[in-house]
Write a structure and sequence with these properties.
This protein is mainly beta and 185 residues long. The chain has two helices and eleven strands, in the order αββββββαβββββ. It has a single domain, classed as Lipocalin (Beta Barrel), CATH 2.40.128. Strands 1-4-5-7-8-9-10-11 form an eight-stranded antiparallel β-barrel. The protein is globular and about 50 Å long. The N terminus is likely disordered.
Length: 185
């Protein structure tokens, strides 16, 4: 019981200076949503990702680098997943990763509200803005580690990356959602 007050006190302390956090792959997912024939929104996710989050709360600076393993694509239907990983779609063998690299963190009223960066997919690089709906840094009481986490969403047009299959029946606009947790080593 003696450790609990110390943990609560440490959780309330602000983070000092810049810190580099390693993305926790068990709590970080990139998921996507795309229109299917106008009937429904199809969803899927990538189950494996790695990267870093660097953040300096005083200077309001940092960077986010996420590598998403293309072969970890999961829509809940194995046959479709195999097709999407194949040569007509994500070409997972030739392009094993999708990358997001931040270029600028954007703050509104002291709160991180967006991240401008570059999305690299299928050898194509395009600017992308991720709108941040939740962002928190502090002590994770369960793991007793300092970390940062966020929920973010952005929109891309898959045709800009050469993914033209099925347009217009399968939507060109794709909503990318990223839930990330990263912790000090």
């Amino acid at each position: 019981m003696r450790i609990l007050p110390a943990l609560l006190f440490a959780a309330c302390l602000p983070l000092a200076n810049a810190a580099e956090y390693t993305i926790d792959p068990a709590h970080t997912y990139a998921s996507f949503e795309v229109d299917h024939l106008g009937f429904s929104t199809q969803r899927g996710q990538f189950n494996r990702s790695t990267g870093i989050v660097e953040f300096d709360p005083e200077k309001k600076t940092g960077r986010i680098d996420i590598s998403i393993e293309t072969a970890s694509l999961d829509t809940g239907f194995e046959l479709r997943d195999d097709v999407l990983r194949g040569d007509d779609w994500f070409k997972a063998q030739d392009f094993p990763y999708i990358f997001f690299r931040s270029q600028k963190l954007i703050f509104t009223d002291e709160k991180l509200s967006a991240v401008d960066g570059v999305l690299v997919m299928l050898g194509e690089s395009r600017p992308m803005r991720l709108e941040v709906s939740r962002f928190k840094c502090g002590l994770n009481l369960a793991s007793r580690k300092r970390g940062c986490g966020a929920d973010a969403v952005g929109v891309l047009h898959r045709s800009e990356f050469g993914l033209n299959n099925g347009i217009p029946f399968i939507g060109d606009e794709v909503r990318l959602r990223v839930q990330v947790e990263a912790y000090l080593p």
